[in-house]
Specification:
The protein has 1029 residues and is an alpha/beta fold. 37% of the residues lie in helices and 15% in strands. Strand 26 and strand 27 (915-921) form a beta hairpin.
């Protein structure tokens, strides 16, 4: 930190040129300090202190100029001119200091295309900590295309890590014929022999191994991507070539650039060369050489190693990731919501959370009697044991299931079938819990939900998408509680997955009968049975290629029917795998024994039908085979959940999807969307590009035919362009649907209907489904309705519902809510002077468009309103999203012209100085603006790291307001967004996180402040903005 960024001198060591200002500071120190100085002589080189000082000065000046390219270029030109004036011999080439407004990006020999650029900067170094979207393996993969040669130094080489970069290694070594050198060890027996062998077998690759565990003990891990043009990059840190280290481990890796730190990169290269040239430490491994393979195998034969996995134990206290969900449930009830659906992925402890919730309600005296309902005995047994453990009452609860009846009937765990024919009155319970609530569409569930009148109703589900394609809103109004889906649950409670969508040559299901949105069961089973050997052969091939130790296989194979399961079982036996069949009719004792045999390894594969879909824990399962296509995303997630649970020694789940070529109506995208939380557009990009936003530690691979089939299906089934949407809307079955009905029926995304210059009414008018004459200016306003799609708070939606019916506003608060809407649709001036209200009354089509949007926004964006009021008339809601102009209207903040203002990133002082709006754009994905990255980010759900404007000093007015807000009479309010614009170009709204106060600060110009939040931020904000995983 240079002197001008440091507010005061602190005791410690320094190596800094002394300026006049620093001299004055030193003179001001008391006699209690000892100051050590050194006077430089002409014989001494200026060295790094001055270089660092000059670099810092230039960086500070460029920040002050901002993002104006012309001004930045002019400043750089002046600096270079001064350098040339004083050191002309340092720049002997004519014109080399005359800068043009262009940058050289690459040179490639024709006919080759320009090489792909690395994800990171070619100038600035950075720290990688496996944050979401910034995993190490994504950066490594991006380096190969432009590298001339690659060196790797790592203690452990795992097959799971090799698989992460396998495609890039093959392209580098085989396709391009470029060298790869690897130094590794057999230390601790942690490497996989098959991974080392495959590395060494690559063309142009060399591998050397240290077999000495006692003296070498290599702990260093580094990659060097050599580029002859002086743009080499290197990675050094804690990550071996393994799955966890590259994706979700708590690893630190520094990415270093030759341009930024040439001496450090040179030192790394020199050290690698020393290791490579030391035959007594590292010995060449020859692929295919029997002696080398035998030696490697012996060295890696481990004594028993300590397991690295952990089981999800159900403790009495809630786990950290469960606490916000339980708090959200409490908050919902405080707001008068007594029918709540708790959504949390399989394996995250829904039953534990329900038991803890009951314990709390019971202690408060809010409830006593309990009815817990599920559809299977295994679920009830597990729930009863969980409640007893949480309550510490061994005799708590009674079963109503399979002939067992409760004697007392105050705390009943009942199957839905038993309730139908029993005298127990389900309306007599204080708390009713419906487990696996996605079954509620069935008639028996529907009847139960109509009969019960509990004080509290709680539904539990990992998959809120019901099997019939509808949702739970009738019985469980939105917003739902938790929404801890698979893609967010993996870092907290589940293992990551490696998912392989495999081609199965010669298997084509496109001609199988398709009825009522799914395959005809008998026709499908017949086709699959006939192709069983092809499927199993491909599965065995995949296991051999993708799993390091097939003998440790603990797999479930999901099959179409009993005949299919038996045939798959027979084929597995033929390939030497220990297999068994389990179906819904298998006796209970046989099921228990089969599970025990799978746990012990006596069985490797269980071929199942209508079992292990849900509600039963089989945590040791580490592999899943999908031998049948699953149309339902709900069933798919239930099946996947059987393998995602944590267990000792289990680090990941491997999934092999072997479903062949599908019927043209089969929806590949639905299960990928359910698994990843992606929109159809994101799924399309992920499949096409081969990488994208995945849960931490996860990996997806698509064989080529599977990739193309999925891309074709998405394009065919879910259009995002206007032509495709119009074609869907023109179909007779869709032409009379409301917007909400259309979106549910077709899976089209709201953001694809409402893009810039596109609206629901506009689309209908193009098909002449809406023939009304538009009023003056109405087409322009319809084109702006898309700017409302971020809204989800009931404060705005409820008022909109009245405004579309031309009901008047009744208070200043409602006036402001109306003006917030009008400012978006009619502009800052018209909303401020009242003209917008007149136009709104004449724009019937605009009102109808907004009317149709309201139920969609309630379904997609609903939030729980927190009890938080800034000022009586300011209608902003905690955790709601707002555009800048909406905030201006909410605070009635006007410019000198009387118009409302628009806010962007920065600090806005409003309400006569009473509030500072801290408007933060985290720019997490803005790779083109390295200087903006990671300055503003959450540290925890109640702490946020933020930097002031570059020119702000501690004693400036802004500095005082940031650091001493109470003394200055100001309340800072934090609003954040990830990016300035969404993928479709629309301005991203800010999310209001509430009042904050400074906890600590550092530096100045800019000042770094850690803010404390009065209210915990939503989990998704924390996940999207954190630097560390």
């Amino acid at each position: 930190m240079s002197n001008w960024r440091r507010p005061q001198l602190a005791p410690g060591i320094y190596d800094e040129p002394i300026s006049q200002h620093l001299q004055e500071q030193l003179e001001g120190l008391t006699s209690g300090f000892l100051v050590e100085r050194h006077t430089s002589t002409d014989a001494e080189p200026a060295g790094l202190p001055l270089e660092s000082l000059l670099g810092d000065a230039i960086g500070l000046a460029l920040q002050s100029v901002g993002d104006k390219r012309t001004a930045i270029l002019a400043l750089a030109q002046e600096v270079l001119a001064v350098l040339h004036k004083h050191a002309p011999r340092a720049f002997p080439r004519a014109g080399e200091l005359q800068l043009l407004n262009e940058r050289l990006l690459s040179i490639a020999e024709q006919p080759a295309a320009a090489p792909k650029r690395p994800r990171g900067s070619l100038h600035a170094s950075s720290l990688l900590v496996n944050a979401e979207g910034e995993q190490l393996h994504d950066h490594l993969r991006s380096e190969f295309d432009s590298a001339d040669r690659v060196d790797l130094l790592c203690a452990f080489v795992k097959l799971s890590g090799f698989e992460k970069v396998r495609t890039e290694l093959e392209r580098h070594c085989v396709s391009r014929g470029r060298p790869l050198r690897v130094l590794t060890t057999t230390y601790m027996g942690a490497s996989d022999a098959v991974a080392i062998e495959r590395l060494a077998a690559l063309a142009n690759a060399e591998v050397k191994v240290s077999y000495d565990e006692h003296t070498t003990r290599l702990h260093a891990k580094a990659w060097v991507f050599h580029r002859a043009n002086g743009y080499s990059t290197a990675y050094v840190g804690s990550s071996n070539l393994s799955h966890a280290a590259q994706t979700d481990g708590l690893e630190w890796n520094v990415r270093v650039t030759e341009r930024g730190q040439p001496a450090l990169v040179a030192q790394m290269v020199e050290t690698f060369e020393q290791y490579w040239g030391a035959p007594h430490q590292f010995e060449s491994f020859r692929p295919g050489h029997a002696g080398d393979r035998a030696r490697l195998s012996r060295a890696l034969s481990p004594s028993a190693r300590a397991p690295d996995g952990t089981t999800l134990q159900f403790d009495i206290e809630a786990k950290d990731f469960q606490k916000p969900i339980l708090s959200e449930l409490v908050a919902a009830r405080v707001l008068g919501r007594h029918k709540n659906l708790l959504v949390a992925a399989t394996g995250t402890g829904k039953t534990v959370m329900a038991a803890l919730d009951y314990q709390q309600l019971r202690q408060e005296g809010a409830v006593d009697t309990l009815l817990f309902v599920a559809h299977r005995r295994e679920i009830l047994d597990h729930a009863l044991a969980t409640f007893r453990a949480v309550l510490k009452v061994s005799g708590f609860g009674e079963l109503l299931c399979e002939g067992e009846k409760p004697a007392i009937g105050r705390h009943v765990f009942a199957s839905i079938d038993s309730l139908a024919g029993n005298t127990v009155d389900p309306a007599a319970f204080d708390l009713v819990i419906i487990d696996e609530a996605h079954h509620s569409p069935a008639d028996s569930w529907e009847g139960l939900l109509k009969r019960i009148r509990p004080k509290q109703l709680l539904g539990l589900t990992g998959t809120p998408e019901r099997a019939d394609g509808l949702d739970h809103e009738r019985h469980f109004p939105r917003p739902w509680i938790g929404n801890l889906r698979v893609w967010t649950a993996i870092p907290h409670a589940l293992v990551p997955f490696r998912y392989y969508m495999l081609d199965v040559q010669g298997v084509d299901l496109r001609d199988v009968a398709w009825t009522a949105g799914k395959y005809a069961p008998l026709a499908l089973a017949g086709k699959l049975i006939g192709a069983a050997e092809v499927f199993v052969h491909r599965a065995v091939q995949a296991v051999t290629e993708r799993i390091a130790r097939p003998d440790n296989l603990r797999a479930i194979a999901f099959c179409a029917d009993v005949r299919h399961a038996e045939e798959i079982h027979r084929r597995f036996l033929g390939h030497g795998f220990r297999s068994q069949v389990l179906t819904g009719t298998t006796p209970k004792q046989a099921r228990r024994q089969a599970r025990s045999d799978l746990d012990s390894g006596q069985i490797q594969v269980l071929c199942v039908v209508d079992i292990y879909n849900e509600g039963v824990d089989v945590p040791n399962v580490n592999t899943l085979f999908f031998f049948r296509p699953t149309e339902s995303a709900t069933v798919f997630l239930q099946q996947l959940g059987r393998g995602l649970r944590r267990a000792p020694g289990k680090s990941e789940l491997v999934v092999f999807d072997l479903t062949g070529r599908q019927h043209l109506n089969f929806r590949f995208d639905r299960k990928l969307r359910a698994l990843l939380g992606h929109t159809p557009r994101e799924v399309h990009h992920l499949v096409k590009a081969g990488f994208g936003r995945l849960p931490a530690g996860c990996h997806l691979h698509f064989d080529e035919q599977a990739r193309q089939d999925i891309l074709d299906q998405i394009k065919r089934a879910i259009p995002s362009d206007e032509t495709g949407i119009l074609a869907l809307l023109h179909e007779p079955a869709h032409s009379e649907l409301s917007l909400d009905e259309f979106l549910k029926e077709t899976d089209v995304e709201l953001n694809d209907v409402y893009r810039q210059r596109r609206s629901w009414t506009g689309l209908r008018r193009k098909l002449h489904l809406d023939r009304r004459t538009l009023a003056d200016g109405e087409p322009i306003v319809l084109d702006r309705v898309h700017k409302l799609t971020h809204v989800g708070d009931e404060a705005r939606l409820e008022l909109w519902q009245r405004l579309v019916d031309l009901e008047p506003t009744r208070s200043e608060r409602e006036h402001r809510l109306a003006r917030m809407l009008f400012a978006v649709l009619y502009g800052k001036e018209a909303a401020a002077n009242g003209e917008a209200e007149r136009l709104w009354s004449t724009h019937a089509s605009v009102r109808d468009d907004v009317r149709g949007l309201i139920p969609v926004l309630r379904r997609l964006n609903a939030i729980l309103p927190e009890s938080h009021t800034l000022l009586q008339d300011v209608p902003i809601v905690l955790h709601a999203r707002y555009l800048g102009v909406e905030l201006s209207a909410a605070f009635d903040d006007r410019s000198s012209t009387g118009w409302f203002r628009d806010y962007f990133t920065g600090v806005e002082t409003i309400a006569g100085g009473r509030f500072d709006l801290l408007l933060v754009t985290m720019e997490k994905a803005a790779a083109t603006k390295e200087h903006l990255r990671y300055r503003d980010f959450p540290l925890s759900d109640r702490q946020f790291h933020w930097q002031s404007k570059a020119r702000t000093t501690l004693d400036s007015k802004d500095g005082r307001r940031h650091l001493h807000p109470e003394r200055e009479g100001v309340t800072p309010l934090l609003l954040v967004r990830e990016l300035a614009h969404e993928a479709n170009g629309r301005t991203m709204a800010f999310r209001y996180l509430g009042p904050v106060h400074p906890l600590r600060h550092a530096g100045e110009r800019p000042i770094s402040v850690e803010w404390g939040l009065r209210f915990a931020m939503p989990a998704e904000v924390l996940a999207s903005g954190r630097v560390a995983a």
